[in-house]
Amino acid sequence: MLRMTRDQNFLIRNIPWDYLGTVYNFFKEVGLELNQPALYGKILSCAGAATCQLGICLSRQAARALIDELKKSGLDLDKIKDIKINLSGCPNSCGHHPAADLGFSGKALRNGDRLYPAYNLFAGAIIGDGTTKLAEYAGEIPAKALVLLVKDFLKGYISKAGKFTDFGEYIQGEGKADLKEIILRYSQAPDFNEDKNYYFDWGADKLFSLAQRKAGECSAGFFDLLEMDLKNLKNTQEALGKVAQNENEKGKLLGELVFYASRALLITRGLDAKSQEEVYAGFLKHFIETGLIDKSFRDIVVIAQRSESREIIARQSQALELAKAVQALYETMDNSFNFSRQSIDITGGIPPEAGKTTELPVIVKDLRGVACPLNFVKTKIELARLKSKEALEIWLDDGAPIENVPGSVKAEGHKVLAQKRIEDYWSVIIEKK
Ligand code: SF4
Fold first, then answer.
1. What does the pLDDT read at residue 222?
2. pTM, to two decimals
3. Which among 45, 54, 97, 408 is the best mutation to test ligand 1's pocket, defined by most ligand atoms within 8 Å of the CB?
4. Which of 57, 90, 217 to mutate for ligand 1's pocket (most ligand atoms within 8 Å of CB)?
5. Of 208, 256, 318, 418, which has the maximum CB count within 10 A?
C-alpha cells in the first residue's frame, strides 16, 4: 500500500511514451480526478469530527463542498497555482491551518439559543528557511459560509493576480483589506427560522450540537462557548453601570445578566440548552441543587425565568452577586471541568490567593508525558486563570508537543517569551495576551 503524508505527491518515472495513455486511463478508472486545476490538490483537511473525537466541525466534508463549489464557479482556477487552503476540524492543527495561505479551524458559535458550526480564519503563512511566519487570525465565519467566502476571495485575487508577483505579496497588501471586507459580508449566521441550513454542518443530517461530549473531547469547543458567555456577562455588568436612571433598560440588562450567568457553565455538564427554559432548568438542577452555586440564588433565577422585570430590579444586588459567583466558580474549574466548592467565597468573591499578582514567571506547569492535544488544552486552562500580561511556564516533551503547542498559543494571541531545551524536555514561557 502506498502511504504519503498530507503534503506529499508522487511521481512516476520512466513511463514509455506509448504507455502514457494506458497509465492515464488506469488512474482515471481507479477514481483519481485528472486534468483538474492544481488548486484542488492544495485543499487539505484533517479527518475532522466525522472520525476524530476531538473534532468540532466536519472539515473533510467542508473541503469537499469547497471543491464542488469551485467546480461550479466558472473561475479560471488555472491562474492560481500558489495557494494552499488548509482546514482543521478544531483548533488543534492536524490540518496545518496555521501553515496555510488560507487556514480554517473549526469552532462552535451561538446565535441566540442556537449553536452553529463555524471556523476561525487565518491568512498569510510564509514558509521558508529563516522566514517562516504563521498565518494570522483574520476573523470567524459560519461553516456554511466558508465555500462562498473562499470563492469570492479567489475571484478577487484572480482579477488582480497580474498586479502581484505571488499570493504572499497580495495577502500582505491589498489582499488583507479584501479579505476583511468579505469576512464582514459572511460573518453573521442568519436566524434559525430564516435559514436552518447554517445550523447543520457540511454533510450532516442532524442539527449541530456539542451536547453529550465529555471533558477531553472537543475541549477547545467548550472554551469557545464558555468564553463567549463569560464575555457577555462582563459586557452586561459594564453596561449596567451606565444605565442607572433608565429602569426599562436596567430591567432588561439584569434579565440578560442572570441568563448569561445561568448559561455560561452549562456546557461543562454536557448540556447544550436550546431555549431559556432549558437554560434555567439546567442551571437550577446542575448548579443550584448541587450547591455549586449557593441555594440563596434560586429566587433570582426563578424571577428571571418568569421575566419579572420589576422584581428583578428590586433584587439587583442579588443578580449582580450571582454573576460574580458564577465567575468565581469558573476560576476554580480544573482540567476535567470539575469545580472546587471549598475555594468559593459564597458571596461571589474570588479567594485572595486566586487574585494575587506575582512576578514573572508565576506558575510552572509540568506537561511532560501529556499528549497532544491535551497539553494545549491544559495550557489554555492555566492561561485562563491568569490576568493579562501574567506569565506561565510550561514544560513540554520533545517532538509533537514542542512543535505544536507554542504555535497554537501564539495563534491565540499570547506571546511566547522564551523557549529553551532542558535535558530531554522543553521549557516555554508564555505571556498571557
Ligand atoms: S484533533 Fe482537531 S485538528 Fe486534529 S484531526 Fe481531530 S478535528 Fe482535526
1. 67
2. 0.62
3. 54
4. 90
5. 208
